Structures are given as C-alpha cells and as structure tokens.
Amino acid sequence: MKLKNIIFLAISVCSFFILTSCNDYLDVSKEMNENLTMDKVFVNPTYTRNWYGNIYGCVSDYSDMVNVNPLDNPWSNMCGEVSSQAAATRDVMVSGFTAGSAQCQRWTSIYQYIRQAMIFIRDANDEGVGSGTNRITSQEIARMKDDARFLLAYCYYSLFEMYGPVPIVRQIDDAAYPQVYDYERASVDETVNHIDSLLADVLSRDNLPTSLITAKTDGVGTTFNLNEAVRPTKIAAMALRARLWVFAASPLYNGGWDKAMALKNDDGKQLFPAKDKNKWVIAKQHLEELLDACTSAGHTLYEVKVNGSIQPEESIYKLFQIFNQEILWCDTNNSYSGQWTMEKYTNPRDVNNSYGTVGPTQESVDRFFTKSGLGINEDNNYHEDALVDVINTAYDDNCKDTHTDHNIFNMYSNREPRFYQDVIYQGKSWYKVFMNMAGHENYIADFSPNGGSGPTSTDTPLTGYMLGKFKNRIVNDASGYQATYSRVWIQFRLADFFLYYAEVLNEIDPTDPRIVQYIDYIRERAGIPTYAKLAETGVKDIRGDYQKQWEAIEHERFVELYCEGQRYFDIRRWMICGKGKLADQTKFGGMNEYGSTAVSIGQDKSFYKRTSLENRQWDDKMYLYPIPQSTIQLGQGRMVQNPGW
Amino acid sequence: MKFKYSALLVVSAMALYSPRVLAGDASENDLNPQNVMQTGQRTIKGLVTESNGNPVIGATINIVGKKGAAVTNIDGRYELQVTDGDEIVISYLGFGSEKRIVKKGVDVLNVQMQQASTDLNDVVVVGYGQQKKESVVSSVSVVSGEDLHVSSRSLNNSLAGKVSGLLAVQRSGEPGWDDAQFWIRGVSSYAGGTDPLVIVDGVPRKMNDIDVDEIESFSVLKDAAATAVYGAEGANGVVLITSKRGKSQRTKINASVEYGVSTPLRLPSLLDSYSYLSLYNEAKWNDAGNPESAFTMPFSDEILEKYRTGADPDLYPNANWMDMLKKHTENQRYTVNFRGGSDKVRFFVSGAYYTENGIYKKNENATFDSNVKFDRYNMRTNVDFDLSKSTRMSVDMSGQYINRVAPNKTAAQIFNGMTLMPVHLIPMIYSDGTPSEHPATDGLGLRDNPYNYLYFSGYCKSWEITYQTKVTLEQDLNFITDGLSVKGTVSFDGTAGQYINRTMSAHSFYATGRNADGTLILEQKNAGSALSNPSASSSPGNKKIYLEASLNYKHTFGKLHDVTGLLLYNQKETQYQNYDGLSLLPYRKQSVVARATYGYDNRYMMEGSFGMTGSENFAPGHRWGIFPAIGGAWFVSHEKFFQHLLSVVNKFKLRASIGLTGNDEIGASSRFPYLETMNTGATGMNLGISSIANGSSQNWMGGLTENQAAAINLQWEVERKADVGIDLGFLNGRIDMSVDYFSDRRKDILLDRNTIPAMTGLRKGPTQNFGVVTNKGVDGNITFKEHIGKLNVQLRGNFTYSKNKIVECDEVSHLYAYQDYTGCSIGTPLIYIADGLYTPDDFNVTTNSKTGAKTYTLKSGLPNPGAQVSPGDIKYRDMNGDGVINDYDMTYHSNCNSSNPKTVYGIALDLDYKGFFGGVFFQGAGGCSVNLMSKATNFMPFNQGVNASSARSEALNRWTYSDPYNQDVLYPRMHSESFSYNLKQSTWWYRNASFIRFKNIEFGYQFNHHQLRSVGLENLRFYVQGTNLITWDDVKYWDPELGNANSGAQYPISRSWKFGVEITF
C-alpha cells in the first residue's frame, strides 16, 4: 500500500510538470522557422539575383594596392612597381614566406566562388522565377548562367596564373556532410582546356551580348550599356580566352622551367607539359578572333584628338576617368572611387588629411621612356646632375593648363607624357583646383624630411615618389574634404591585347611587320616616337630582331600597363625575375627621403641620391605561389606542392 | 564622511536592540535549579565550559526521562539532584549537546561543550540537498563563510588557495571589474565555456557580489558523483553557496565595520624625457652601425639638457603620466545582521554596504570627480516558517544595488595611453592651466593626451540593481511513509541597470614656442565642448525564473541500512535585455534528477544518480541527454578490525566515483547552432554605373551565400569524470586530510571541421561535436590542529594540480610535428625559441674607413634570419634546420605555458591565545607563463617611432654596443623604429608566471564571553588584515596574476590593509 502511494505521488508530481511544460517549453527556436535557408533561394527572384551577385566577388580589384587581400592588388608591391607603407605586404618580400605563412592566398576564396557559381548553374530555375516586375525570365536566367560560366572560367584563370595547374571541381559537395572527394591537381593542359571549354561553351551561344557598345562613333560620342558594365560580353570572354592561351604558351607554363617539369602527381601524371610552340599559334588565333570582334564592335584605343592630332596627355588621363571604347571588360569596384581609399593613399598627407603611402620605386621611375621614346640609358639627353625647370603636364583636369615647376631634378625632365601622368616626384606642383585655392598657390609635393609627405610620419611612401596614375584632378577642391569621383576599374583593355598580339607574332615569326605596328599603336597614343619613326630617323631599329622586339614589348607593357595588376604575372610567365635579370626582384629603391634637398645631388646626405630601401629576396620557387600548406597536408600525398616550397 | 554615517547607523541599531538584550540577560542570569527530593538522590556540581575554557552561561542540564533540570549560572556552574546511573544531557544554543552518565561516587561533573559549528562539519551541502559528511561518496570541498576570510569586494578574489580543486586568477584590479576568473580542476574544453555552474541557495545566480557575511557555506562539487545531477551543466564543476538562515535562538545582532587602505602594486614606471631621448639617440646610433664620427645625434646635448633640467616644462616637458595616479585608495565595509527566531519562525536578515574608490587623482580644478568609485548595498532576508508540524515554508529575498562612477575612457584606454604617450611631447597641462594636445593625434589613441582622457572627457555613472526572490514549501509525508517529503520552489530574479554618460572635450592648445615676452605661443587644437547632457550608453538587464519540485526520501532501516532517495524536476529560463537578434529569445532548460544512496552500518556507501537535461539550444529530438554517475565509499576505520588503530588513525575512508556530465555552453557563435544559416550580407556587386564620367554605381545585385549548414545532431559536450579519493584522520582528528586523483575526458567538443579541403568551396566547415580533451590531476587538503596549553594552532593547506591535453581538435597536421597543437595543453603558445642574442662573433664585420660605421654580415653556417640583424638582436633557433628562420621554426614545445595556472595552492597558519588571534596565508600558482610582448607598442620603446611610443624604466636594462657579449638584459639591441624581427613571439619575452604570495595576514583580539557578558555583549573582536603583502615571482614588471593584459598596461592589483571591528549582541 505504502509503496503504491509513493509511486503514485512521484509520478503525479513529475508528470504534472513535464506534461504541462515539456511540450513546447524548449521549443524556443520555433520562432526561427521562417529563417532563410538554401531551399528558399532559387524560388525567389531577389535571392536568386543576390546569389548571382556574389559570384562577381571573385573578380580581383587591382585598384587597391594597399590591402593585403589577395583579391586586391598586393602584387604591385610584391613585384616592385610600388612601395606601399601601410600594406602588410611591405616586408613580405624581405622576410620571405613559406607555404604555411603565405598571406596572399587566392586559393580558399576562389574555390568558394567556384562553388557559388556551380550551385547557381545547377540550381537556378531555367524556367524563370518570380512574377510581375520582379520576374527573371528564362532567357535572363540563361544569360545569368553563362555569366556564371564566364566567372567560373575567370576563377580558374586566377588560380592558374598564380599557382599553375590546380584541382578542377567536378562535383558540388554536401555542406553538412562533405564527402571530401579526392582532389588532386589537374595538369596544365587539363586546366587550360577546362577554362577554354567553359569559354567556348559560353561563346557557342548567343546569351551574351557581343559588346557594351550600343552605338559607335569615331572616338568621343560612343554610347555604352552602362547599366550592365560589369556583365561579361562575348568580347570579354574572347579576351579572357586569348590571355589564357598567351599564358599557356609562355615559358613558365610551357616547358620553360625544369623544376616544374619534374612535378608529378602521386599517380605519376606530369603536371607541366613539354614545350609546345603551337600554343603561340592557338593564342594568335584567339587574339585575332578578339581583335576582329573588337574592330567590328567599335573598340579602339582611346585617343582624344584635336584637329585630327592625338592629345597624349589627355588621352592617357581620361582613359581612366571616363568610360570609353578601349574598355573590353571592367569592374565597378574601384578603390579610387571612394574618398578614403586609393586617392587618399596617393595624396600627400597635408592635402586633405591623407595618407600618402603608395609610391613608385626608383626601378619603376627609371623605366619610363624619355620624350625621345628611348630608355634612359639610350638617350644622350638624359642627365642626373642638375636642378632645372620642368613643366608639369598632369596639372589640369582639362589637360589645357600646365604648371612650370622650379628646381626639379633633371632626372625628371624630358621624359615621356606617361611619366608625368603616372609619377609624382619631388617638387612637382599639385593639381590646379587645389593650387587655385587661397594658401595653396605654391604647393608642391615634398618628400624631404620637413615636407608634407616626408619621413617624419609613417604616412610617407618612403621612395620619394607617389603614384599619380589613375588619380582624378578635381577631387582635392574643397578645403579639408576629399571629394569623390566614381569610375570603373578596367580589367581588360585593348592596349593590353595589342601588346599580347605583338608578343605572339614575335614568337611565331619575328619578321612579321605587324609586331612593330601594334607596339607603335600604343606609342603613338602615348605621344612618343614610334619604332617605325625611330628606325626611319636612324635612331634605333628593332624591326625583325626577335630579341630587340621582345625587349620592346616587355618595356612597353611595363610602362603602358604600369600598376594595372599585370606586371607580377608577366615577369613570372617570362621567368625574368632572378638576380641580374631584366626584372631583378632583389632591387627595391627610391630617393633618399631622409636626405636634404639642399645638399647637392648624389651626396650621402642629399635627397637626390638613389637609395636601396629593402633587401628583397628572390628565389626561383617564387615563380609559382605556394599552395596553402594545409591543403597539401590534407591531401596526404595526393596534392603536390609547387617546386621549392 | 561615509564612515561616520555608517558608524552612526550601527550604533543606533545597537541602541534599538539593547533593551531586549538586557531583558534577556536578566532572565538567563536567574539561576533556578529545581530541588525535588527523591529516594537515592544526591547533588552533583559542575562547570560547563567552551573548548577554550570560557564558561557557558545559561546552558540547560536535563536528566533523560526524568523531570529534573538545571541551568548554569554566570560562572558556568550548576547543581543538580541526580540518582546514580542517570543520563544527563547538557545543551545550549549554538553548541552540540553533550551526554554523560552519572557514575557512583562522582560528585563533580565538568563538561566541555563543542561549538555547534560542527553542524557544518557533520553535514555537507551537495547538489539538491545535504548529506551526512561521513556518508559522502563524492568529491566535494567545503569551506564555511568565516573560513573564506574574504578580504575584498568580490568573493571570487578570495577563493584561490582556499578550496582544493579550485583554480582562480585575478586579471585586473579595477574596482567593480576585478572579479577573478576561476575554474574547478582546470579546463577541459578549448571551444566551450569553462565557467563552473554557480548555484546560490539552490538557484543559478552570480556569486561575485554576495556579501561574505551572508554566506554560511561554500561547496565545490568536483567529481561525477557530485555533478551528474546537474546534467548538461555540470561538466565544469559546480559551486554551491548557501546563505545563512535563522535559528531558534535569542536574536543575535552582528555588526561589523571595516576600513581599508590599498596601495597599487607594481605600476609601470616611465622613463623620463631626458633618458628616453638619450635612449633614442642610442637607438639611432645603433641603426647607423655605431659610427665613431660623422654622426649627429637626433637630439643634441643642448636640447637634452633642456629636458634634463626641466627649466621649461611647457616646451621641454617631462610628463610622467603615472603621476595622475594616487598612492592609496580606500575602501569601507559595514554589515549588520539579525539572526534568531522561535520554534515556529526563524529568520536571518542582513544588510551591508561596501564602498571603494579608484586610483585616479582628483583634478582640483574640475567641477566633477571622474575617479572610479564603486558602491554596493546588499540586503537579505531569509525566513523559515513552520506552518504545521510537518510543513515548512521559506521565503528568501535578497538584493544588490550597485552604483559606479568611472571616467569616460576605460581603464584599459587610460593605462594604454599612459604607457604609450611619449613623455617629451607635451606636458599634461600647460603651466598656465591651458589644456594641451599634440597636433598629430590620429583619433584612435595615438598621441592622445591621457590627462585629457581622465579629466576632460567627462564621466560615466551607472547603476545596477539585482533582486532575488525565492519561496519554498516543504511537506513531510510521514503519513504515507516515514522519511518521505515533498518540496516545491519558485524563484524570480531580475537585474536592471543603466549606464549614463556625460561627455566633454578639452579646449586644447599646442605650444609652438615663446613670444618675446616669454608667453607661450599657443595654437588651438580642439575647440572643446562643455559637459553634455546625460546620454544612455547601455542598460544591462535580465530576468530569471526557476521552478523546482522534488520528492525526498530518507530512512534508516534496522539501524544499519541508511537509504535516501531524491526525485526532482526543475525548469529555468533566462532572458536578456539589450541583446541582439536571436539572443533576445529566452534561454531555457529542463531537468529531471534522481539520486539514491544506500549505506550499510556507516561502513559501506553506494550512491547512484543521474541528471537528465533538456536544452532549448539544440534540435528537436536532440535536446535531452542523460548523465548518470555512480560512486561508492568504504569507511575502513569503522570496521571492527580497525578499532585498535583508532588511537592513531581515527579516520580512514576510501572513495571512488565515475560518471558522465555535460556542458551545454558549447561555444557556438550563434544561438541554435544546428540551424542552417545564410549570409545575406555577403559581397555583392553593382552591375553598372550611371554615366561615363563620375558615374555612380547602380544596378545592385546584393550578395547571398551559404553560411552554416544545418547540423541537427549537435549536442552538448560530454565529460567522463573518474575520481578516487582518500580521507584520513590521525591522532584524534588533530591531523585531517583528504586527497583525490581525477582523470576526466571531455568529448564532443563543438568545432567547425578544419580538415575539409578548401577545394570544396565551403564557406564554413560543418559544425560537429568532434573535439576531445583529457584533464588529469590531483587535489587535496590537510589540516593540522594542536593545543599547546592555551595556544591553539591550526595549520591548513590545500593544493590543486590539473593538466589538460588536447586529444582531438580536427587540426590539419603540420609539416613539422612540433607545430601540431594536438597533444598540447590548451593555450600553449606557438613561439620561436630564442637562443640568446647575436654577439659580434656571429658576424663578419666591415667597418667604414671614414666613419667607423659597422656593417654586419652573418657568418656562413648561421641560419638566415630573413632580416638585417646585428649584434644584440635576438637569435632564434632553426628548429627544422633548413638554414632559414621562418614561421616553420615556431614551436609549441618551448616549455612556455598558457597564462592560466595548472597549479594553485595555499597554506594558512592560524593561532589564538587567550583571545589574541592571528593568522597568515600564503597562496601560490604555478605552471603558467606571461608574455611580456603581448602588446608590443606598449612595451617596446620606439616601436612606433620616437614620437608615438614611450619607454618604461626597465628599458635601460638593454643590450649595449659597449658591452656586446652581455646577454643578461631585458631588451635586445635598441632600434629607432619598429623592428618586427625582435618582436616575434619568442621565449625571449616569455616569463614563468608562477608566484607565491604572502596573501594575507590577520591579527586581532577577541574579548572573552565572561568579560563581554558584563557589558551585555556576546562577542567583540578587533582585527587588522593585510592582503597581497609580498609576492615572489619571475615576471617582475607587473603583477604575475594580471597575465598578458596589454603588456602590463592594466589597472593594477593592490596591497591593502584593513582595520575592522565586529560586535555581536
């Protein structure tokens, strides 16, 4: 009896509480049932667009030379084009890095965008989604999927140029329970063919427009579909394909490096192919396909003409300020558009409270041509021995007025227009709108110890130069405030591909006259004597000489594409980085910022003295970036590391 | 001021109650022995005393089964009519009762009474109940409130070394923010929470702001047998705090007053301007290769002289920012409590006030005082009613009200500023009273004037009130069966508060020189602003609701079989205010608990228990977990065969337990970690622009990605705890000790899988219960008591050692095994090993023939450090022997430890002699390290150049060119700007953070009852207490307990002296 009572009581007390409250007491998360989950994405037009919008994040923002983010542009610093004080990359080439510590890894984030694109291609509803004004039609979905395929190709290309061949993802893994398929590196040919086939597939359909140009005129007046400036066009796809094959044909990826040739997967598969000259021919075909399409769509070099004659200063300046017909593909993320980023990193710190830390190195300054179109070593009129008057042509937004600067090192006199547009040197006047304001009339860029960009603060570029390219000349107008000027960042432009074409032709047949012709298109627009003209006047003749033409192409690419994110990859694919080679990566210098401008040129305590800034390291293993060590470890032998790492 | 008022309060409280005290006095002094003559009766006499020999006045002496009774008089004497063979019982409130048999021929029967505090010794508070101490099978440490000797505001700060099994460190000294972190038997998880569960009077509550005089007992539950009943919350150990309750006794009023003075310990001391700039000259000279000629010091002798003489402190200042700190701070504590009751109603009521001020000096010119101030008021009422013979009701109410004042900048900001701001740039304030400001401040703390932080940034006042209520109803169910009872508890707790800021900024200037007349040329830097209107900054707040119902059974069958049983249900809810998103939803748990114990003849004990917990944070179907445990004990000394040993070994008990507990603080970054989440704020893209020139971005596509995959199987961490222990007593209890060995294994630690290749493209590795950590160690305590004449000596010691090891953290293995975290203890640093400093012998030196400047090239065969090193720079070990120093040379195996101690111990010696008492307490910790370079900018001179850093006086202890082989220095070669190579985390900068502290000394005088009786007092005590008197350690530059904090730029820990009086009526 008693026992029964106990049991009865125990059960009734406990069951009372449990039954009355247990059911929903713990169901707090029920309120979250309507949260967004994966299965709700592709039935909703906004989420579908947002998913698609994220894929564009894979596109590298080469305008940002300050951040260490590998999808920005740490490369300009790492290859010695500029010094960048604020960047964490500042000493990476000095102290070196290992596969475990390499900071500029695209690997993880690019594979995330690959997954993002693959899911979109698989899951976006081909029938279209939504209704009314918010509807995405089936045709639009088809185009978006081809956009995604283009971006997928771009993703693999970004990995390829950096690491060489990489694993190709064939299956979309389950997020909650990944199967962890066996990933191993494809060969160079497999990687290139995979990218090529993605682009060929896109080009085989008509979902993409050919070009953004909607109506063409000669030069100014061409109209564009700016509302879709970033979306890939057929021309963008052709351009990517052409660049892909230029890389595939270049020595680093085409039998030029014995250490890479020795690289084998654990099943014995050789990753880097033996040299195949035919790849230059394939590159040529794709370049010609591109250049033909460009011509018929109305893409030309951007040239501002007055009375039929090219205005080089204005052309070079406006090329990066307004949308124009030279742009084959662009990106709306441009770090020069905002107030706080690149414009301020390339202003002296006493102009609108800026940071002034990104500056060309002496090695870069020395590579700009003289106004005679020659290298500084070839031009007898080039001197480094006096302070002279120099006319600043990068002064006025309209490129009409100029400013005469006094006491300028004659290293900076008689240089080509691109030099004045791209480099801000000691004593150079600032922009017209700024100098028109009271109190700034005599403002000059000053990198010496007491100057507005001098070394007494970390807000100095340390090289004694600042980067002038890309900068807008009207954003310094309001006192104390930096205005903004929005523009796109150019990913692909015609000049780049003209130089590729010259390079490819030179590899196939150095006697081809189009080689010099295509280099000269660039020189003509830049306002320096063409090689045709130099030959004609007997100054210098490179025609038909493979080596001289190659050097001319390398030189022109450096100057024309300065700081556009190409150099780091170009000098690697050419394999010219070692000590004593053309792009000797151990050199990194500037003017002597700690010296005085009053001390005569070349003296120890003079500002005007070439000074080595960093003891940079070079090792051939740096031709290819190391794959993250964690990926190698996880591969347990199946993932092969690049040589030397 | 405050002191006077509070003293007044205590005195008036005394006055109020004195009539009753006197009345009580009178009645109890009335000696009234009964004289009923019976056959064979005779008179015995006797003296009743306490253990210290003081007479017990008013004790009653009863004869068992008869009517006769007596009461002791003022001298503690009694007379009673007895018959031979009678059993008499002597009892007095507050003492255990004593029984004696009246033997033939004995006329005098003196009795020594034992303090009833033995109550606490007989009963141990365990989870959801109490157990007889001798029948406990689990590992539980108990301390009484009095023995805690709390010497500061926070209970947490007085625990280290007092309780075995508990590790504690205090990381800051800032009033109100100085609560120590503590762990029970160390930590077993690198992802989940490691805080023990704290239960106050049966309800989960915070413990730091409980006034110590409210505490009756403090229990630490350590093994599975003790903690399994807490189910998914017990794995980190449990602290049970029981507050004092009423007693059926004459109301006792206890009041105490304490006044303390504290002195900050080991403040950073700054190098003066002259030495700092001279050091900079040296650094520049070092950078130039120590040339013999053609080198101009950046600061000329003339300039240096101006700094040295201090002739013009406005233009050549020497701002010792530490001067803004006071030498001493004060604190006061007042408590009064009332404890008493009748047969039917018992109560304990207490009130306390604590106040402490901070370290910052008052600015005589300011209208407000922004110094840190902390005030706390505590109140508690615990009342027990006997509603009927078998029904009890308890009503508990308590509250804490806290007021704080602080400068508008945090202590971390101010101390950071004081050790970062150069001393030579600007004075604290110009001599004419004009606030100073450096022209090149970056708004992020660089070159901000700390003086302005403190005196011209306004202040923040905050209040916080916590109220705690609880009602318990307990019904004996003897009508069903003997020993059965049922109990129900409801508790509502709440916290509310508000931070109120008033901000301002200084109208500040920078002096660029002097006019012809000698006045300063001042350039305005900041227009300044007056104190703003109050604005709200945050308002902490929460509510907690706790319900519990239980069925208890306790019975002894046939005198040999002790059986107890417990069946309990509880549910609790906590909900926060001012949180964001999902954290606003309530946090809920339900538990069902069962426990059964069986003891045979006090020799063999068995206990089985389980806690079953349901947590709302997991997926339906995965919410409930069951955590069972069993334990057993063998009381060897209660065996017959042991009887002849009892005179030597009076206690010998073996215990063992094993079981599972859980930890549902799994460290997930979000609530409901099992839910699939998407990232709607991912990178998106503007597809277009609006025009060809200066076109704004348009056609925004947003950005949406996966975030976390659904992981419905997620659950709590599970810990298997095993424990064996031994309790020993020697020489009639003069030596008492207890030692436990434990071996715990935590599994199912939550982590995002790392070993998923990046090529899957997953944004986040799937979240799984995957990690494993083991934790093993020993804890124990020993007490030694001895009476030498009238001198009582007690020596107590306890220690805790625990070492954990990561068994599984889903780590991607490393190229070099010494870089694998797996196998190390949690928090072990990955650092370089420094093999001293480079000496000139390591280099080929080329000397510039003109200037004598040296260029150093490392000799071949030495590893390439990847930096331009010179003698005096740190030499790192090439772990992998590849000839290059890079990140592959960092190792976990450097003999440096985490900053949390593995060992904590304490030794206390207490003495008393005829009312004088004294005690000392030493406390120590071991197995931990401090990283001097945890914040390089605050510790490395010139790390941000000469104009944005400072140096401490230790900076003079450096390598110098003139003594290039001396390795016995703190700083390597001085560089004039950041030289990241020397700043690498390495053994050079790590110090053993073990320490031994002379933590406490206490001495005083306690008046004896006899003396006090005559003035109507029950107890009167004066005492002096000193805290943190001496510390022996290797860190030296700051208090070792502060840890890495900001490289010592942290609110300091203090030494304090306290004077107190305690009175009981």
Label the overall shape of chain B: globular
**Computed structural class of chain A:** mainly alpha
**Uncertain segments of chain A of ≥5 residues (pLDDT<50)?**
none
* Quaternary: heterodimer
Largest sheet of chain B: 22 strands, antiparallel, barrel
Stretches with pLDDT under 50, minimum 5 residues of chain B:
1-38
The level of helicity of chain B is under 10%
Number of helices of chain A: 21
Could you tell me the number of beta strands of chain A?
14
Radius of gyration of chain B, in Å, reads: 34 Å
The proportion of strand residues of chain B reads 35-45%
Strand count of chain B: 51
**How far apart, in Å, are the first and last alpha carbons of chain B?**
26 Å
What overall geometry of chain A do the principal axes of the alpha carbons give?
Answer: globular
Measured between the Cα atoms of the first and last residue of chain A, the distance is 81 Å
Overall pLDDT level of chain A:
91
Biggest beta sheet attributes of chain A? 2 strands, antiparallel
SSE order and pairing:
The complex is a heterodimer of chains A (645) and B (1065).
Chain A: H1 2-25, H2 45-55, H3 75-78, E1 82-84, H4 92-95, H5 107-123, H6 138-163, H7 188-203, E2 213-215, E3 223-224, H8 234-249, H9 258-261, H10 278-297, E4 305-306, E5 309-310, H11 312-319, E6 327-331, H12 342-345, E7 358-360, H13 362-365, E8 387-392, E9 403-409, H14 417-422, E10 423-424, H15 432-435, E11 466-467, E12 489-493, H16 494-508, H17 514-526, H18 531-536, H19 546-560, H20 567-574, E13 589-590, E14 611-612, H21 629-635
Antiparallel strand pairs in A: 1-7, 2-3, 4-5, 6-12, 8-9, 10-11, 13-14
Helix pairs in contact in A: 2-5, 5-6, 6-7, 6-8, 7-8, 8-10, 10-16, 16-17, 16-19, 17-19
Chain B: H1 2-29, E1 42-49, E2 60-63, E3 69-71, E4 77-82, E5 87-91, E6 98-101, E7 111-112, H2 118-122, E8 123-126, E9 129-132, E10 140-144, E11 166-169, E12 181-184, E13 197-200, E14 203-204, E15 215-221, H3 224-227, E16 238-243, E17 249-264, H4 273-287, H5 301-309, E18 329-341, E19 345-357, E20 373-388, E21 391-407, H6 411-420, H7 450-455, E22 458-476, E23 484-503, E24 508-514, E25 520-526, E26 535-536, E27 541-557, E28 561-576, E29 587-600, E30 604-615, E31 624-635, E32 649-663, E33 677-679, E34 686-689, E35 697-700, E36 705-708, E37 717-730, E38 735-752, E39 767-788, E40 791-808, E41 834-837, E42 843-847, E43 854-858, E44 874-876, E45 903-913, E46 916-926, E47 929-931, H8 936-939, H9 980-983, E48 990-992, E49 995-1006, H10 1009-1013, E50 1019-1033, E51 1054-1064
Parallel strand pairs in B: 1-7, 13-16
Antiparallel strand pairs in B: 1-4, 2-3, 2-5, 5-6, 8-9, 10-15, 11-12, 13-14, 15-16, 17-18, 17-51, 18-19, 19-20, 20-21, 21-22, 22-23, 23-26, 23-27, 24-25, 27-28, 28-29, 29-30, 30-31, 31-32, 32-37, 33-36, 34-35, 37-38, 38-39, 39-40, 40-45, 41-44, 42-43, 45-46, 46-49, 47-48, 49-50, 50-51
